[in-house]
Design brief:
Blueprint (H helix, E strand, L loop, with lengths): L1 E8 L6 H12 L4 E13 L6 H9 L5 E4 L7 E7 L6 H13 L7 E12 L3 H11 L5 E3 L27 H11 L5 H14 L5 H10 L2 H4 L6 E6 L4 H21 L10 H14 L15 E9 L2 E13 L1 H6 L1 H18 L3 E11 L16 H19 L3 E8 L8 E11 L13 E6 L9 H5 L7 H4 L9 H12 L1 H4 L4 E4 L4 H5 L7 E4 L12 H6 L5 E6 L4 H10 L4 E7 L4 E6 L2 E7 H4 L7 E6 L18 H9 L8 H4 L15 E2 L5 E2 L3 E4 L8 E8 L2 H6 L1 H18 L8 E7 L7 H21 L3 E7 L3 E2 L2 E2 L3 E11 L14 E5 L11 H17 L2 E6 L4 H11 L4 E4 L13 E5 L9 E8 L3 E4 L2 E4 H10 L39 E6 L6 H10 L3 E6 L5 H16 L3 E4 L14 H8 L1 H12 L3 E5 L1 H9 L1 H4 L11 E3 L7 E9 L15 E8 L3 E3 L2 H10 ...
Parallel strand pairs: 7-20, 10-11, 15-18, 25-26, 32-35, 37-38, 37-39, 39-40, 40-47
Antiparallel strand pairs: 1-2, 1-3, 2-5, 4-5, 4-6, 8-9, 9-12, 10-12, 13-16, 13-17, 14-16, 15-17, 18-19, 21-22, 23-24, 24-29, 25-29, 27-28, 30-33, 30-34, 31-33, 32-34, 35-36, 41-44, 42-43, 42-45, 45-46, 46-47
Helix pairs in contact: 2-3, 3-32, 9-10, 9-26, 10-26, 12-13, 13-16, 25-26, 31-33, 32-34
InterPro entries: Class_I_gatase-like, FGAM_synthase, PurL_linker, PurM-like_C_dom, PurM-like_C_sf, PurM-like_N_sf
GO cellular component, one term: cytoplasm
EC number: 6.3.5.3
């Protein structure tokens, strides 16, 4: 049985106008008059008697949606659906919700699509534009509405053998190589042929694809492992400097390898890793963990928790997804951060901190200028930002810094880089060699066709047909599944049983499991699948996301399966460790892979490059040679209008920085939240109070790197170090990781000279600082025909820091002294690294003395850019009588403000002082800070708007009821009130919420809602009801339950609450004067269930209060001010009416709306708890600067009529001591204490 549903937003909830204007402008469609969007659902085997309930509770929101039997007529209709085999979160979440309603939905299958209806005069050319813009062939296609049957699943054919392969002559093998589209070279294939001749058999398709994946540049770094010969430097002063660095490198090689040095080839990998090897040989870097598991950098640190110190492992990793993001921006960027997370997760560490870096050509480029075979730059940039933020936001990963770099070379291929930091108590990590008989379990998601060939695809240059040919290469992320993995691996009972672990990244089963031990017997029939019909080859190489492979002792099998099931995850035994060094795979009774380990690990044919030539940079084009400007005001305005110095807060505002309640520095600091931080700084994820935080800093400048890769690599290390020091870090304990991104090398000597020069520059800096890169990642496919990415080396620096030492760059007050701690440069434009190291030591000591109030490292844009950025956060001006070299990019220098003297040191120059003038007053000229900011914030506003376009901002009254007064607490004398906290698929704030209640004396009981099957769901619902019956408080934490799908937030949670057992338990809780709190996603569930504002479970009807999409049409993440409107609720008993709080917000659907009559009732009853307000005069405000989602009457939170139920959008739980240090006078909102006190 088939039913089709069409769901459209009611006019007051639709974004038709914004969509129309955007498409009309972007695509130059003057005849376009109106755009409408509808969600389309096809239901198969849906019980007809339950269809009405499914429509009202799952597929639509009666308040905001209209259900249609057919598509409305339009001048042009385009219906788009995901490609078969792609993960469809909307359809998947719909099926999860249906199975909550009734067992009869068990066989129901749902597919989804989106209908676009266009009105206006649209000729075929206009329609073609719309198709090209809206359909990315990588992940979607036009839907044929006449088709109403599910696509059949055809059984997979047996895995073929390549008969005659071993008999091919040289010409035949070359032709075969070309026909197969392999990433491996012909020389690699010749080795494969030789191997199978010796084995006296023909290879299977799977064996060829496994080898192609295993030996790909992405998996085995073949470019970096290529032997380099004839390395040549220019015969100039620049060349002599490089030769000196090379001589130092050779001396380190001799010290490390001894007599073996002469026979060891020169490679990019050797140059990249020599500093770490040398430092280790000298007895340094003893804090670095040495292990056979090398998925992430790992160092030992001491962490204080509740006054006690114990060893932890601090892990960090950088990852890149350039190729996938270029061809499918949303999915590629999403799985970039997903992959970065799973690397330290495989090391048993909990990821809590991230940094996102992207590279783009000008995203304002007209669509008409798009290169053939490419997506428009705006589509790539916006889609990648949406994908990266969505995945991180959903999984609950705090992103503390977001930076996008611009260069025309990124038109060849977008750059998408994610870096993460994780930590775990060292006692929870077991590293052990697998033994014969050990089991390999696959934990997490099921396998599909998405990601097949991703590793090999990422190793190839892009060409004009990539969009059409690479559909299967881009993985589809499922963030709620990865969140479950995070929770599971955080459990020491689970992690301590793991001998070895790998994540399913590039290469799928072949690599993730294939690398775990020398001998493995893999049963591909045991791999869980998303759908039937996958071939043995697809099962072997699919890179479907959210999967982990672990090695355990056989006796731990049952315990590990039970622990996984308790977190709503499957744990499938898919392989066994064997004594023979052979990788074997079985499928459907056939042995389709049998490869000897020594051959598999040979990485193919040895590669050699004869000729590496480092070019002399053109001094006349040097971005480091900046002339002085007499009229600095005009010059600074011109600089701020460039992409390189444009304000990027509109981009960063969509990334959640506060989840985890560990944020020390928000991405944009000051009371205006405008000064960009130097680095990401977060407290470690301890259960108790800690002073230990981690700094994640980076350095990179595409203009410098394109001009001189050597300077680019050197200055990347310097800038990463300076950023770390500017946050209070100690450069002498920092650890580094490098990210390289280059064109396809080919055989040209100049091409190879680019990464070699960059690594030599990085070596120059690291050797001088006595530090090393202990990890890295390379991507060597940044080419599109004759267009190439800028030579890129990004340096990451990581160190632990005491939060009491952390410094931020914004000025704190007027009357502070300003200093420029300068770093001399040599004739080649290189910083004096001895002076730089001395500066770093001086600053570290000065911070400890307490006089330093702000630090901003100097880099591109010069000291004037630093002066400006430090001013905008708090609107504090500066007065400087004389300033020279204002625009010189003096890397290694620092701008410092101090409330006293800084002492005496070389290169310290006093500049002036801070003022309350709101101006930069320098050399007798002045510029208003607000005028400068207006220029910088306008540059990218068309791509990344910070605020929606609205008319004049209005204020509304404080919604205090006339008879509002505190109600006396009901004293029940419970020493430790119990809090029931359900964890739904997609919940991500439960740890923060539980910590907040425990800190205030509550006993929190978590109940994971498991829905792998009906029995698990029934058991978890019963556990939820039982826990609720024995609790005083129910709290619904924030997150993205079921990914905020289908097409609406909180639906899954609301359906759980409406389950008869849970509804009865909630009614009983309220009857005994229990309390309910819902934050963000929890508030959305309370609204959709009827508990708010009515106080009881009820089906919503049109006109009811609801929470809908933010007016700006995207996720927002920032601090906003709220004021208390009423306090006659136990949750508000500690607050005064009019009291203000600083609250972290992070949501996409937080706009409160209601019919006039409903709003008036809420006001009359005093049910409006909090309103958004201007932080200055605390007046409730409709301005998007203060009311981030555009909520009606500035409503942020409401209560039930009895006051015992509170729902609010702001994350009151996301603040800890020493948190948000660069937001002045943070006023925490501890409503958890009031909830606990209600029962004492």
């Amino acid at each position: 049985m088939h039913q089709r549903l069409y769901i459209e937003k009611r006019p007051e909830f639709a974004d038709d106008y914004a969509l129309t204007e955007r498409l009309k402008t972007r695509l130059d469609l003057t005849g376009l008059q109106r755009v409408r969007r509808l969600a389309v659902y096809d239901l198969y085997d849906c019980p007809e008697a339950l269809l009405a309930a499914a429509i009202s509770r799952v597929f639509s929101d009666p308040v905001s949606d209209e259900v249609r039997d057919a598509l409305p007529k339009a001048d042009f209709t385009l219906v788009i659906e995901p490609l078969p085999g792609q993960f469809d979160q909307r359809a998947d979440s719909a099926m999860q919700c249906l199975r909550l309603l009734d067992d009869a939905f068990a066989p129901t299958v749902v597919t989804s699509a989106q209908a676009w209806l266009f009105e206006g005069t649209l000729d075929e050319a206009a329609r073609a534009k719309l198709r090209q813009h809206l359909i990315n062939p990588i992940d979607s296609r036009e839907k044929n509405l006449a088709e109403t049957a599910l696509p059949p699943h055809h059984p997979a054919a047996p895995v073929p053998r390549y008969d005659g392969f071993t008999a091919l002559d040289a010409d035949g093998l070359a032709a075969w190589h070309a026909a197969q589209g392999l990433a491996m070279t012909l020389a690699d294939l010749q080795l494969v042929q030789k191997y199978f001749r010796a084995e006296q058999r023909e290879p299977s398709e799977t064996e060829i694809r496994v080898l192609d994946t295993y030996w790909s540049d992405h998996c085995r770094h073949t470019t970096f492992a290529t032997a380099l010969h004839d390395i040549a430097f220019p015969q100039t002063d620049f060349g002599a400097a490089l030769a000196a660095d090379f001589a130092d490198y050779e001396a380190q090689r001799q010290a490390v390898y001894g007599a073996r040095a002469a026979a060891r080839p020169y490679t990019l990998m050797d140059l990249a890793t020599i500093d770490a090897k040398y430092q280790r040989a000298q007895g340094n870097l003893q804090d670095v963990e040495i292990s056979a598991e090398v998925n992430a950098c790992s160092v030992y640190i001491d962490v204080d928790e509740d006054g006690k110190t114990r060893p932890w492992l601090l892990q960090f990793k950088n990852e890149t997804h350039n190729h996938p993001t270029e061809i499918e921006p949303y999915g590629g960027a999403a799985t970039c951060i997903g992959g970065a997370i799973r690397d330290p997760l495989s090391g048993r560490a909990y990821v809590y901190q991230a940094l996102r870096i992207s590279g783009s050509a000008d995203p304002r480029e007209p669509y008409a200028a798009t290169l053939p075979g490419k997506l428009p730059q705006a589509v790539i940039a916006e889609g990648a930002a949406a994908g990266a933020s969505s995945y991180g936001n959903q999984i609950g990963l705090a992103t503390g810094q977001i930076v996008e770099y611009y260069h025309e070379g990124f038109k060849a291929k977008h750059m998408e880089v994610g870096a993460v930091v994780a930590a775990v108590p060292a006692e929870n990590v077991r590293r052990e060699e697998p033994a014969a008989g050990d089991l390999v379990l696959l934990i997490g998601g099921a396998t599909g066709r998405d990601g097949c060939g991703g590793a090999t695809g990422s190793s190839r240059a892009q060409h004009g047909g990539s969009l059409q040919e690479s559909a299967a290469e881009v993985q589809k992320g499922n963030p709620p599944e990865e969140r479950k993995l995070q929770r599971l691996f955080r459990n020491p009972e689970f992690s301590r049983r793991i001998k070895r672990c790998n994540d399913f990244g590039a290469g799928g089963v072949a690599v993730a499991i294939g690398e775990l031990a020398d001998g493995l017997d893999i049963n591909l029939d045991a791999v869980p699948v998303k759908y039937q019909g996958l071939s043995g080859t697809e099962l072997a190489i699919s890179e479907s996301q959210e999967r982990m492979a672990i090695v355990i002792a056989a006796e731990d099998h049952a315990a590990m399966q039970a622990l996984a099931a308790a977190e709503n995850l499957t744990a499938s035994h898919v392989a066994t460790v064997t004594a023979d060094a052979t990788l074997t795979m079985h499928w459907q009774g056939d042995t389709i892979v049998r490869l000897k380990r020594d051959f598999l690990d040979s990485n193919g044919a040895a590669n050699a490059q004869h000729g590496v030539r480092i070019a002399e940079p053109d001094d006349s084009a040097s971005p480091l040679a900046v002339t002085s400007e007499k009229n600095w005001v005009d010059a600074l305005k011109a600089q701020l209008a460039t992409l390189a110095h444009a304000d990027q807060k509109g981009l960063g505002d969509r990334f959640d920085h506060s989840v985890g309640a560990a944020c020390v520095l928000i991405p944009y600091g000051g009371r205006y939240q405008r000064t960009p931080v130097e680095a990401s700084v977060y407290q470690l994820p301890t259960e108790g109070r800690t002073h230990t935080a981690s700094i994640l800093a980076h350095g990179y400048n595409p203009a410098v790197s394109a001009w001189s890769p050597y300077h680019g690599g050197l200055l990347a290390v310097v800038d990463a170090t300076a950023r770390l020091v500017a946050c209070g870090g100690n450069a002498e304990t920092a650890h580094y990781s490098l990210q390289e991104y280059y064109r396809r090398m080919g055989a040209e000597a100049d091409n190879w000279g680019q990464p070699y020069a960059a690594l030599l520059g990085a070596h120059h800096a690291l050797a001088a600082l006595g530090r090393a890169a202990i990890g890295g990642k390379d991507s060597m496919s940044g080419s599109y025909h004759n267009l190439h990415v800028p030579p890129t080396l990004i340096a990451f620096a990581v160190a632990a820091v005491d939060v009491r030492r952390v410094i931020s760059p914004e000025y704190k007050d007027k009357g502070h002294q300003l200093y420029w701690l300068r770093c001399p440069q040599d004739a080649l434009g290189r910083p004096d690294l001895k002076a730089f190291a001395a500066n770093n030591r001086f600053l570290f000591e000065a911070i400890g003395e307490g006089n330093v109030k702000s630090i901003r490292a100097v880099r591109h844009g010069g000291i004037l850019q630093a002066l400006y950025e430090s001013a905008i956060g708090n609107g504090i001006g500066v007065h400087i009588d004389q300033l020279e070299d204002g625009f010189a990019p003096e890397y290694g220098g620092y701008l410092i403000s101090s409330d006293g003297g800084l002492g005496i040191t070389d290169n310290l120059q006093h500049l002036g002082f801070t003022t309350d003038s709101g101006k930069l007053e320098i050399n007798g000229q002045s510029a208003a800070i607000k005028d400068l900011y207006a220029i910088a914030s306008a540059t990218l506003a068309s791509v990344y708007p910070l605020y929606e376009s609205v008319g004049e901002a209005t204020r509304v009254p404080l919604a205090t009821a006339k008879d509002a007064q505190r109600r006396p607490r009901a004293v029940s004398g419970i020493a430790t009130p119990r809090i029931c906290l359900p964890v739904f698929p997609g919940t991500n704030s439960e740890l923060d919420t539980a910590r907040a209640f425990r800190k205030n004396g509550g006993d929190v009981i978590e109940t994971v809602i498991c829905n792998q099957n009906r029995d698990a769901l029934d058991a978890s619902l019963q556990a939820f009801a039982d826990h609720l019956a024995n609790s005083q408080i129910l709290v619904l934490a924030g997150g993205f339950s079921a990914g905020d799908e289908p097409d609406g937030s909180g639906k899954y949670m609301a359906n759980v609450l409406a389950n008869p057992r849970i509804a009865d338990a909630i009614a009983a809780l309220l009857e005994r004067d229990g309390l309910i709190l819902g934050i963000c996603n929890g508030f959305q569930a309370l609204i959709k269930s009827g508990l708010l504002p009515g106080g009881k479970i009820a089906a919503p009807v049109p006109g009811d209060a609801t929470l809908t999409h933010n007016r700006i049409g995207r996720h927002i993440a920032r601090i906003a001010t709220t004021v208390v409107a009423n306090n006659h609720s136990p949750w508000l008993a500690d607050f005064q009416i009019g009291e203000a709080h600083s609250v972290n917000f992070s949501h996409g659907e937080g706009r409160f709306t209601a019919a006039d009559a409903v709003l008036k009732t809420l006001i009359k009853n005093g049910q409006i708890a909090f309103q958004y307000a201007a932080p200055g005069d605390l007046a409730p405000s409709m301005s998007p600067k203060h009311n981030p989602n555009g909520s009606l009457y500035a409503v942020e939170g409401i209560t039930s009529p009895c006051g015992r139920i509170l729902g609010k959008m702001g994350h009151s739980e996301r603040h800890q001591h020493h948190g948000q240090q660069n937001y002045p006078d943070f006023r925490a909102q501890n409503l958890f204490a009031a909830g606990i006190k209600a029962f004492k």
